[in-house]
């Protein structure tokens, strides 16, 4: 509606022509004059004449055009055809939603206040005490958790024994209903114990969280009052006596075949003229190593120091986990267990976060009833959800991407939903200041039978190439750069395959040339 | 500092002040692609491109735009002149005389008129955006937002000043974003003027205490009034008496501006014709605007401010305008495959905050405090030693690297002052500009200085206007494919405006050079010129049009194979001349320049280096001739020398498929060094442009030979002027040599040389001379071409550098007078 064609007629001496001009006119009138002259084969000396007439014509037509539009608008409003109230409200809404001046005065939320406090303290001499404290807390919780596992295990063993004696005596006076009753009782006992112990742990966590946050705020206030750097003399918990690391049974269970961690790092550059540097590492390890805080050590690990420093910074680190569905696979359970094994001081508990996600999902389902999105029962492959953590060893943000069985096949291509999901992850990372990202190179963290060498190579090549493409694309998104990219390989992969995959990388990414320092002649 | 001195401090001019504001561009809705299948350009980049033209506006009644900065996550920062006090502060009882008010009104209209002439609509006019300077003059502020955001379409906040926008803008509300386009017409500003004058006349801010909704309603209710809008406003503010007391022509002015129907409102041009302005204030219009020969302008001032450590981001941060909560607190919860994001709340920090933050200038003032007044007016033509004695000693940084000199505020101050002055005198001062450019080129003035180096004169603007850049041609498709791949890391070149301009310049070039065709690479070649002259397409085009014939003569012919072949042959010979070992290695692995160097030379390296490196390279290139790029190519190879020598064919191909980072300063230095010591005729080409470089008459092309040839004149010159720099080897028989030979030449008869054993030691007594050769050009002389060729290649195989043979042979030397030949047996 916003344009109008008008005919411009020009006559001068024996020359004349007619042309259609779109109002509003875009571009340079002067240039248009010369185009007209070439088109209609006119002498150059009348250029000025055409120009003055044409510019007058265009300016008058534009004014007239504007006048017409506005006159009809105003007449409509004069004739009460437009609802003034409605318009006022709509404008008010736009102003309130978009301008700070008219928007609601909003105080910083609790979350933000705590974030500022924590960020400030973690970058002060208080850092060491804080981490030590966090670690002590974590150990306490961990001990409780182990205790809980042990008790439950004991109970189960006892119940199994009881049950087997009962079954043995089935013929000798014990009826089936007795056994059923026993089974029910056992189940009830189990549940009761679970709930009891869990609630104990939760209480401890809650107390720790409260204590910790209060302590932090207090320390900040003190340092502000004294106008000095916060230097904590004491932490709220007494230093625990060095205890001999108890070899927990869980630990011993894990000591099965251990694969040494293999890793290789590269510096690559992207872009043909301006070269953007990125670090890439290929790593063979258990993905949970990135999450779990190493047990039993008395000191917090250096990694958790790094993680704490970066928590509220603009350099977050993220990890991609692949799930069959919300809360299903073994990986998910391991992950949840790790999250629960220490106190989360900053964000809601992982279960609450997942709760919120499924809430969002339900909402989506409700909305999509109207928009008829197909198959909305579950998340689709390639969809992903995000959880935030402060109690994991090396990552802050987890991208949980949903996959399906097709991923196990050997013939997926760059249009596969999970690969597209990966692109959305890279994009999300880029627009939310997540500058380190770990991606499963084979889109899988577990080895399986069908993962032959050629399968692995094919899959790795696909992921390398796609991620490279995403990173090139990312440069134009105007977000933060992905500085560190880590490709994870499953623990069980052989070192030969690892070797062949690391050799593949320089063929796909341009590895930066080493800078060789030469002694001057 | 004494008060007398103080008043001369040019830096403390009150108009030399600027401020910054920030806003966010609208995000694109999930993943969308443009019509060409490529991802959409972020809106912030489009705005960045559109805003550039605003920097061009320099007018007495307009605040100058200085800079647009793109931050992370679609943030934009606009820096512009910001001096004086907002008019709002003057709207109170009895603060202004009627004359002052009329004067202010006139200046506002003058400012707007200037904008309208440039087809820019203010749309953001309000009494706060009218700044009253110390001398009482008026500058309009913040007039570019509507233009740079493509009529508000690229941002999400409403670009409206509540009371000052005409009512029709509100009515269009329902499809506001769709129709914003048709409201670009100029009359839209008139009601704004009306309201401001209304406030001035009634000495009251209108509806100041009302709430947002009520104010919108008030404006909309004005539509309903059938009589005088002004009268109605006056009555509502209990100022009816004041209304009646106003001078009738002033009152009419306001009335007309406030007319409900757009068609009844006067344009700025009509307003300026009114007798209210022509009678009382005739003098005001007559005052000439300040001389265009300013010692320095606000643009330069801002540049120095930045160099002296001025940081816009930091200042905005201090004022809390860049506050943002930690990113981990605002992550989304769930993202679906189609990009739908759920669970991410709008970050309140992204709401629009229109505050302006004035930038502190103390740091710059202090940094420059010791600079004497005379440094602002350097003497350019003075030959007097007496005067020279009184000049301040030059600021010495000559030993520092170029990149550091470019960031030294004081050095840049002196350079900019001097070169700006010389540029005013162009073309008369061209020689001096060239001389200064040899030292270095201040980045701020690079565009103009390059133009001077290219010797562009005449009415290039007119020429450009006359070229048809619109009509479709067959090359359009290729151009359109190439442009979105040309230096897209750069914000200017990746903006929509940049694409448009690049396309126009390329089309203009194709139109103008019908004997040539568009070769891929012309886009990269144009990019530096466009970047430097973004607001002046004609100049960029003029630079390109002069650059191509000078450095790339005939390269863009439809069949350019013979030109390219000759160029590459010369390149190979130059490598052999300076670096025989590398040349032999490349020959052994058969890695010929055709495999890597064509894009280098066809685009003068603009395809392989990022813009900031091209600038430093071309700074020197523009002072050399068309053989300079060969030396650049050589120095690039020199930087990669050790890796090339270790590599086989495949590794070399891989290495050059994506050229590693090159240290540009070393590269430029090396190129100049070889450029100076290489005899000119060695790189002379049949296909060079005779307009710029004259070819020696006896030049015979020898593209097959591995070693270059030198022309007779060149040799004669060298023997005469600097005999120590040349070593002539006569390979004729000893008998012929004794009869007559070049002064100072040595004799190695070809018969005596065992060609199958390339060891220089075998040459006997002269071998030391050859092995230790680093600073002499070795010229082989004989009567037979084949013999010279054979011996030259023999020396090349021996690894002797700087070997060439005499073009045309010994017989060419015989007619030379005064002769350089002597009979040996006379000695």
Automatic annotation (TrEMBL), chain A:
Residues 226-245 are annotated as: Disordered. One of its GO terms (cellular component) is cytoplasm. It comes from Popillia japonica (Japanese beetle). Signal peptide: none annotated. PANTHER family: PROTEIN C12ORF4 (PTHR16525:SF0). Pfam families: Fy-3. This is Macro domain-containing protein. Coiled coil: none annotated. InterPro entries: Fy-3 (IPR019311), Macro_dom-like (IPR043472).
TrEMBL record, chain B:
Residues 440-625 form the Rab-GAP TBC domain. One of its GO terms (molecular function) is GTPase activator activity. InterPro entries: Kinase-like_dom_sf, Prot_kinase_dom, Rab-GAP-TBC_dom, Rab-GAP_TBC_sf, Rhodanese-like_dom, Rhodanese-like_dom_sf. Keywords: GTPase activation. Residues 725-822 form the Rhodanese domain. Pfam families: Pkinase (PF00069), RabGAP-TBC (PF00566), Rhodanese (PF00581). Residues 1-278 form the Protein kinase domain. PANTHER family: TBC DOMAIN-CONTAINING PROTEIN KINASE-LIKE PROTEIN, TBC1 DOMAIN FAMILY MEMBER GTPASE-ACTIVATING PROTEIN. This is Rab-GTPase-TBC domain. It comes from Popillia japonica.
């Amino acid at each position: 509606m916003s344009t109008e064609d008008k005919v411009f007629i020009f006559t001068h001496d024996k020359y004349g022509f007619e042309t259609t001009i779109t109002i509003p006119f875009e571009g340079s009138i002067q240039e248009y004059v010369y185009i007209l002259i070439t088109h209609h084969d006119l002498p150059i000396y009348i250029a000025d004449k055409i120009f003055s007439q044409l510019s007058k014509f265009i300016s008058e037509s534009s004014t007239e055009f504007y006048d017409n539009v506005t006159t009809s608008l105003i007449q409509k409003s004069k004739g009460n055809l437009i609802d003034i109230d409605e318009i006022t409200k709509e404008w008010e809404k736009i102003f309130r939603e978009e301008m700070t001046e008219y928007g609601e005065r909003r105080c910083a939320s609790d979350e933000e206040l705590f974030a500022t406090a924590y960020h400030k303290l973690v970058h002060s001499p208080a850092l060491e005490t804080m981490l030590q404290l966090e670690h002590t807390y974590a150990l306490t919780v961990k001990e409780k958790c182990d205790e809980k596992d042990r008790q439950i295990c004991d109970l189960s063993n006892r119940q199994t024994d009881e049950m087997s004696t009962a079954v043995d005596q089935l013929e000798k006076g014990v009826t089936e209903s007795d056994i059923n009753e026993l089974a029910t009782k056992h189940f009830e006992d189990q549940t009761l114990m679970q709930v009891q112990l869990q609630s104990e742990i939760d209480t401890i966590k809650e107390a720790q969280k409260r204590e910790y946050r209060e302590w932090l705020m207090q320390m900040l206030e003190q340092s502000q009052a004294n106008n000095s750097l916060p230097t904590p003399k004491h932490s709220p918990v007494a230093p625990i006596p060095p205890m001999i690391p108890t070899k927990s049974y869980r630990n011993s269970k894990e000591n099965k075949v251990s694969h040494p961690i293999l890793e290789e790092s590269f510096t690559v550059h992207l872009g043909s003229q301006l070269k953007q540097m990125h670090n890439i590492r290929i790593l063979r390890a258990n993905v949970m190593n990135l999450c779990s805080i190493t047990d039993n050590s008395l000191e917090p690990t250096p990694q958790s120091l790094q993680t704490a420093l970066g928590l509220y910074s603009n350099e977050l680190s993220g990890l991609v986990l692949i799930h069959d569905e919300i809360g299903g696979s073994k990986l998910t359970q391991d992950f949840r267990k790790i999250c629960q094994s220490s106190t989360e001081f900053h964000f809601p508990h992982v279960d609450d976060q997942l709760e919120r996600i499924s809430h969002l999902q339900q909402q989506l389902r409700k909305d999509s009833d109207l928009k008829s999105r197909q198959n909305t029962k579950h998340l689709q492959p390639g969809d992903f959800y995000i959880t935030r953590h402060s109690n994991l060893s090396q990552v802050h943000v987890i991208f949980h991407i949903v996959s399906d069985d097709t991923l196990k096949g050997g013939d997926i291509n760059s249009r596969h939903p999970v690969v597209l999901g990966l692109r959305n992850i890279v994009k999300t990372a880029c627009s939310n200041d997540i500058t380190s990202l770990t991606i499963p190179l084979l889109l899988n963290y577990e080895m399986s039978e069908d993962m032959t060498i050629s399968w692995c190579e094919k899959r790795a090549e696909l992921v390398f190439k796609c991620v490279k493409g995403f990173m090139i694309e990312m440069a134009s998104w105007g977000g933060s750069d992905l500085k560190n990219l880590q490709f994870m390989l499953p623990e069980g992969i052989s070192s030969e395959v690892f070797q062949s995959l690391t050799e593949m990388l320089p063929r796909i990414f341009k590895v930066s040339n080493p800078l060789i320092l030469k002694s001057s002649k | 500092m004494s008060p007398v001195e103080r008043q001369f401090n040019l830096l403390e001019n009150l108009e030399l002040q600027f401020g910054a504001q920030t806003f966010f561009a609208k995000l694109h809705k999930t993943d969308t692609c443009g019509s060409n299948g490529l991802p959409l350009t972020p809106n912030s980049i489009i705005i960045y491109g559109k805003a550039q033209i605003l920097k061009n506006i320099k007018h007495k009644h307009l605040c100058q735009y200085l800079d647009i900065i793109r931050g992370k996550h679609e943030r934009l920062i606009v820096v512009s002149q910001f001096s004086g006090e907002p008019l709002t502060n003057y709207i109170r009882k009895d603060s202004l005389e009627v004359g002052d008010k009329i004067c202010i009104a006139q200046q506002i209209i003058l400012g707007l008129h200037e904008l309208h002439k440039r087809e820019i609509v203010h749309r953001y006019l309000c009494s706060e955006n009218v700044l009253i300077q110390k001398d009482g003059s008026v500058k309009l502020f913040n007039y570019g937002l509507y233009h740079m955001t493509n009529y508000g379409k690229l941002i999400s906040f409403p670009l409206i000043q509540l009371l000052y926008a005409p009512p029709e803008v509100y009515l269009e509300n329902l499809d506001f974003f769709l129709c914003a386009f048709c409201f670009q017409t100029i009359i839209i500003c008139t009601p704004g003027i009306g309201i401001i004058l209304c406030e001035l006349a009634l000495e009251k801010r209108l509806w100041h205490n009302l709430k947002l909704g009520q104010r919108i309603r008030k404006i909309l209710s004005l539509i309903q009034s059938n009589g005088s809008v002004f009268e109605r406003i006056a009555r509502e503010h209990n100022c009816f008496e004041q209304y009646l007391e106003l001078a009738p022509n002033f009152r009419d002015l306001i009335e007309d501006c406030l007319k409900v129907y757009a068609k009844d409102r006067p344009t700025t041009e009509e307003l300026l014709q009114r007798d209210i302005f022509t009678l009382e204030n005739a003098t005001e219009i007559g005052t000439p605007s300040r001389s265009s020969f300013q010692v320095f302008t606000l643009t330069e001032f801002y540049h120095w401010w930045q160099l002296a450590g001025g940081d816009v981001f930091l200042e905005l941060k201090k004022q809390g305008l860049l506050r943002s909560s930690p990113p981990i607190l605002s992550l989304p919860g769930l993202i679906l495959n189609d990009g739908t994001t759920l669970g991410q709340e709008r970050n309140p920090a992204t709401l629009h905050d229109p505050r302006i933050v004035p930038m502190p200038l103390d740091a710059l003032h202090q940094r420059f405090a010791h600079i004497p007044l005379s440094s602002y007016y350097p003497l350019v033509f003075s030959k007097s030693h007496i005067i020279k004695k009184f000049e301040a000693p030059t600021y010495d940084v000559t030993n520092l690297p170029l990149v550091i000199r470019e960031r030294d505020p004081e050095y840049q101050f002196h350079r900019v002052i001097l070169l700006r002055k010389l540029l005013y005198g162009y073309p008369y001062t061209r020689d001096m500009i060239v001389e200064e450019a040899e030292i270095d080129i201040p980045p701020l003035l690079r565009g103009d200085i390059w133009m001077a180096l290219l010797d562009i004169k005449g009415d290039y603007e007119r020429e450009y206007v006359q070229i048809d850049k619109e009509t479709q041609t067959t090359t359009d498709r290729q151009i359109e494919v190439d442009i979105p791949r040309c230096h897209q890391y750069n914000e200017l070149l990746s903006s929509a405006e940049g694409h448009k301009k690049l396309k126009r310049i390329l089309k203009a070039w194709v139109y103008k050079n019908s004997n040539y065709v568009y070769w891929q690479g012309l886009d990269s070649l144009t990019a530096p010129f466009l970047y430097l002259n973004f607001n002046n397409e004609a100049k960029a085009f003029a630079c390109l049009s002069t650059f191509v014939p000078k450095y790339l003569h005939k390269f863009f012919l439809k069949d350019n194979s013979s030109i390219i072949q000759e160029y590459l042959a010369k390149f190979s010979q130059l490598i052999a001349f300076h670096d025989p070992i590398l040349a032999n290695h490349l020959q052994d692995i058969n890695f010929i320049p055709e495999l890597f160097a064509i894009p280098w030379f066809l685009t003068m390296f603009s395809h392989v280096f990022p813009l900031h490196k091209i600038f430093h390279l071309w700074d020197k290139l523009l002072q050399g001739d068309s053989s300079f790029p060969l030396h650049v190519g050589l120095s690039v190879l020199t930087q990669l020398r050790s890796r090339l020598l270790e590599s086989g064919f495949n590794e070399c191909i891989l290495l050059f498929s994506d050229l590693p980072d090159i240290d540009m300063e070393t590269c430029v230095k090396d190129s100049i060094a070889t450029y100076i010591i290489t005899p000119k005729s060695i790189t002379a080409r049949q296909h060079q442009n005779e307009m710029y470089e004259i070819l020696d008459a006896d030049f015979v092309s020898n593209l097959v030979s591995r070693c270059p040839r030198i022309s007779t004149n060149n040799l004669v010159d060298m023997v005469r002027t600097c005999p120590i720099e040349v070593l002539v080897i006569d390979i004729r028989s000893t008998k012929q040599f004794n009869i007559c030979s070049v002064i100072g030449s040595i004799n190695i008869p070809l018969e005596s040389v065992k060609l199958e054993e390339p060891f220089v030691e075998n040459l006997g007594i002269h071998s030391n001379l050859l092995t230790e050769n680093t600073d002499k050009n070795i010229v082989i002389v004989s009567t037979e071409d084949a013999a010279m060729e054979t011996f030259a290649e023999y020396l090349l195989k021996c690894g002797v550098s700087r070997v060439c043979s005499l073009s045309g042979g010994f017989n060419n030397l015989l007619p030379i007078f005064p002769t350089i030949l002597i009979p040996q047996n006379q000695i």
